[in-house]
Amino acid sequence: MMRIFPIFRRNLTHVCSLKPYKDTKWLMPNGNPTGMYIYNCVAQERVPIILNDPSFATWYSCGPTVYDSSHIGHACCYVKLDIIQRILKSFFNINLVTAMGVTDIDDKIIKKSLETNSDFKTVAKKYEHEFWLDMSSLNVEKPMIITRVSEHIDTISGFIKGLIDSEMAYVAKDGSVYFNTSKFPNYGKLQAGHDNGETSDDAKMNKMDFALWKGYKPSEPSWPTDWGEGRPGWHIECSAMVSKIFGSQVDFHAGGIDLKFPHHENEEAQSCAYHNSRQWANYWIHVGHLNLKDTKMSKSLKNTISIPTVLEKYSADIFRMACLMSNYRYPMEYSDEVMSTAEEVLKKFRFFLKDVQVYANQRVNGVGDYNNKLMNELQKVIENNLETLRSDFDTASCINTLLNLISHTNKIIKGKTTDYYPVPVLLVADYVLQVLTKFGLKLSESSTENITNGFIDTLVEFRHTVRSNALERKDKELLNACDVVRDKMKLMKIQINDSKDTPSWVTIK
């Protein structure tokens, strides 16, 4: 991977020509319009996505601080970012070069290492390993590049030295280094008017100044620098690692809404100061919080839910569908009601795909025909969904449109008409499957791996025959027996969808 970075840097030199956007502090890049729009927190409105190169874009995500197990709040953030990345790549053919930073040296990691009487690296490796297992179980694609703070100390210290040399940062008496916010007029452009949480300190020139480097303490790991021993501050690490990989500018910088201020604010300030530029990240992407019903979820409140715990109850597809049915920028509620709704929507899609398979392969007299009305509806849906996704990745509207499309198609599949339209029906099913797959849904049936599908088909068809005869004769005893079979199969995670003509079945979580 490292061989391509010099090419990126050459291309990125052309991005620095920027112009204002409606008198805001966001600057519209010169380059290639993609036709897509995204909400920009600096402009406080949707703005066009413009890339220096029309075929690729750079993307950096703030990764975990690995001092504890991840929870479903983290899962929500990374699943939604994964969905956006997949949309850019699969729907709009943007080659994303993705990177993620892992904070493996931090106050909380040091505290955990002291509490457990273990080395900070041992703590970090344990929880980072857990994190990647969790991401894999959620079908979140791994970034191309993973940068760890402990492996980039020289890069970080060199970045800080550049800020000191340009007098944008200063060394305090205790060996700590602070960014001088009074010398950066645009400080606060991501979220103006908010206190960055820094406390007053005799060592600091201004209250809003933030630490780039923390001076030496005997109980903490430290590294030597030109100004003395210590360790990196939290904010500086991302700026330094991103600059090493992507140069003086990055297209997309993503993370949870809680990172918007002060973390991303500080990143933007120190990066612009280091590169002597007016804009470092062209597009900030912030994912809304995941809340429990009527309350915020956080480790401090001790009400978090682990990712494995959720996946014991709901599949990764169900969780992803819940994320797809919400707006990435706004808070999302986690509750059994929300997850059950997502599960029902997912089952509608899976039943539809099964029903289409049965419909297309049924033995009928006559000749198959085309249904121009359905074909026109499909084309309209394809165009509308592309437009919906272009407009700030509105996946919820896209899912609703797909549901309307399958409802329309089901009228043909399950209608009383003798007309047979296999081609348009199959095209609809193929499109639905393509979209859901591009969103990262696996639509797998892993629970039936040890069961022969043919045996289940035979059982379902036999039950359907018995049930149809029972309905015709109004035999309540046989109907009750069919219901017992249905309920027992549901307990085995197999749900039968009864219909007048041909039944179908899907596995459920």
Overview of this protein structure:
The protein folds into three domains: 63-313, Rossmann fold, CATH 3.40.50.620; 343-439, Isoleucyl-tRNA Synthetase, Domain 1 (Orthogonal Bundle); 445-509, no CATH class. It is 45% helix and 18% strand. The chain starts with a helix and ends with a strand. By secondary structure, it is of the alpha/beta class. It has helices at residues 5-12, 72-90, 107-115, 120-137, 153-165, 234-246, 260-275, 307-313, 316-324, 336-360, 372-390, 395-413, 422-438, 453-473, 476-491; strands spanning 18-20, 27-29, 32-40, 45-51, 56-65, 95-103, 145-148, 169-171, 177-179, 210-215, 230-232, 250-256, 281-287, 290-292, 295-296, 332-334, 494-497, 504-507.
Brief characterization of the structure:
This protein has helices at 5-12, 72-90, 107-115, 120-137, 153-165, 234-246, 260-275, 307-313, 316-324, 336-360, 372-390, 395-413, 422-438, 453-473, 476-491, and strands at residues 18-20, 27-29, 32-40, 45-51, 56-65, 95-103, 145-148, 169-171, 177-179, 210-215, 230-232, 250-256, 281-287, 290-292, 295-296, 332-334, 494-497, 504-507. The protein is an alpha/beta fold. Helix 5 (153-165) packs across helix 6 (234-246).
